[in-house]
Amino acid sequence: MSAIRPAGRPRRPRRKLQTPNPEVRERIMTAAADLILERGFPDLHIEEIVEGAGLSVGTFYLYFDSKADLFVALATDYTERLRSRMSAAYQSEGSPLQRVRRGLDVYLDFVEEYKEGFVYFLRAADGMMTSAGRLSAWTFEVHAKNLQPLLEEAIRVGEMKPLNPELTAQALVGLTQHMVTYWLDNQDRYSREELRAFLTAATAVALAP
Amino acid sequence: MSAIRPAGRPRRPRRKLQTPNPEVRERIMTAAADLILERGFPDLHIEEIVEGAGLSVGTFYLYFDSKADLFVALATDYTERLRSRMSAAYQSEGSPLQRVRRGLDVYLDFVEEYKEGFVYFLRAADGMMTSAGRLSAWTFEVHAKNLQPLLEEAIRVGEMKPLNPELTAQALVGLTQHMVTYWLDNQDRYSREELRAFLTAATAVALAP
Fold it and tell me: Residue B28, Cβ neighbours under 10 Å: how many?
């Protein structure tokens, strides 16, 4: 997946590496992630990223086509990390809805680990077009597709009422993300435990057969 | 409410009009709204907006400090228009939850009226900082504050279980907006009626005492 450039700005042709070094790529991404959280993405220059990584601008362009491509790579990376942790929760022991709830805890752990960085990436992803469509729609889709089989199982075993599982998965992912964003903006007024209790109570009844 | 400029870009001092003409302001806003939907906001120049309105750049700066301020004015205008229509539904006849549902229909009518424009403004609002905080958080707050008294009434008359009304209002507004965005991206697969039926079924039970 790559970023799509605004019309009229031609893509700089990238020299392909025969044997890319995953450690170099990782160094660029780590330096960029730190700088993005510190200063925001729009005002960041590639020169500063490579300086932080102790590399040259030329090296940057061996690994990424553009700053936007680097952002897409970072967002993809975070999304995949979260998806794989949530998958583990979804595949643990217990009834389908117990596992859904365990997935929520994993999600909240992840949010607490990255805090403002989490929201920053969510918001920037909303404005970013990629070859796979809008970056934010893609991340919603990843998490909804991951959750959907569990909802189908919950319906099969009679633990959930037979709502459309695709729409329900989208609704749960969208609702959770919205409320997490609201919570991060209002941490002085609500604790993680209050947010969790609210989401659990609201969705428990919504899904009850 | 005004837009906040990125650090380092000074605000151009605005000459104040003794008697601003609301029709001129309206002409600028209408011309801008049409151009934004056609071409997007980031690539739009003030010169093109005033040309569309048959005015000069100087006149633009008598009414707005910047292009971002104009965007904030447009988004505020749309939000207020929707809020006032929803208020009318909330104050109509029927039980509190019947009126909440009437508000949903009004919201879906508004979305159908503006379609892609609606989503465009939502997305652009997410990245826009204003003197009243993030523009998107502000619009969520406007709609949630409008809905909250109705939820409190529903709890009082025993039509809704006693969830925190502030969080519930945020959750309903956030969920509805997320699902509307998803629906607009997937109109080939879901009709408005299917979206409405899903939202009604999912929230009816979530709110039931």
Answer: 24
Q: Are residues A82 and A30 in the same domain?
A: no
Sites in chain A below the pLDDT cut of 70: 1, 4-16, 127, 205-206, 208-209
- Taking only the tens place, the pLDDT of each residue in A35-55 is 887 777 777 889 999 998 899
Which pLDDT score is estimated for B113?
Answer: 87
Report yes or no on B191 lying in a domain.
yes
State whether A194 and A104 are in the same domain.
Answer: yes
Closest Cβ–Cβ partner in B7, B164, B175 for A178: B175
Q: Per the CB < 8 Å rule, is A202 touching B43?
A: no
Q: Which residues of A touch B (CB under 8 A)?
A: 6, 42-43, 123-124, 126-127, 137, 140, 161, 163-164, 167-168, 170-171, 174-175, 177-179, 182, 185, 190, 194-195, 198, 201-203, 205-206, 208
Whether residue A75 contacts residue A125, with contact meaning beta carbons closer than 8 Å, is answered with yes
State the ipTM, two decimals. 0.86
Helix and strand element counts for chain B (H, E): 9, 2
Q: What's the total number of domains in chain B?
A: 2
